[in-house]
Request: fold
Amino acid sequence: MRRLIGLMFIVALWGTSISARADDLQKLDNRLEAAQDTLQSIMRGKDTIPDAIARKAYCIAVVPGLIKGAFIFGAEYGQGVVTCRTGHGWSGPVFIRMAGGSWGFQIGGSGTDLVLVAVNRKGFQDLLNDKFQIGASAQAAAGPVGRKASAATDLSMRSELLTWSRSRGIFAGVDLSGVSVSQNASNTDELYGAVHPFEQILSGNVPPPHAALPFLRTVAQYFGQARANANS
Reply:
C-alpha cells in the first residue's frame, strides 16, 4: 500500500509539472503572438518605420503593451522579443526585459508598444550583451517615421539603435536614454527546451521553435529576407 501511495504521489507530481510547463509555454506563445500583432499593426499604418531602414535592419526588437506604472518604482516593466537577420533568414527569437529610465510625455499612458531596430553590427553586438543601457553603452536615436523619411540614412550612420513607440495610436520616434535592456535567459531556454547562448540563437545557429514561425514570417514580410554576410 505504501508503495502504491508513493507511486501515485510521483505520478501526481509529474502531471503537475507537465501542466505547469504547458502553462508557461502558452504564456511565451502569447508573447510571440502579441509581438507579431504589434508589428503588423504598426507596419500597416501610414506613419511607420521607413523602408530604407527596415530593409537594412540587422535586428528587430518588439516590446508590446508595456505596463506604465512600473517604471515609477524602477521595477521591470517590459518584456520583448528579438530576432536578427542572418545569411539564411531571420534567426530564432530570444526574450529580453526592459526597465528603468523616463519616458517624458508618455508617463501616465495606459500602455505603450516599442520597436527597436539595430541598424549596424555594433547594434547587433549590443543585443548579445547580458545587459546594456540605451544612451550609455548603446548609442540610440529616436527613429524617423514615414516610409520615405529623409532622415533615415543619416540616423543609420550616427546610431546603433533606432527607437520608436506607439501610445494611444500615435507612432513616433522616442528617446529611451537610461532604459536598460537585459537578456531573459530563463524564458528563452524554456521556449527552446534547452540552454542556448543568445549569440548562438541570434546568429541563426539554432532552429527556431514552431511557435515562433508566424512572428518570423511577419518580420520577413516587412523587413525583408536574408542577406549575404548579414552578421559579418
Notes: The beta strands are 59-66, 76-86, 89-90, 94-99, 112-118, 131-133, 140-142, 161-167, 170-173, 180-183. The first strand starts at residue 59 and ends at 66. Residues 2-43 form the longest helix (42 residues).
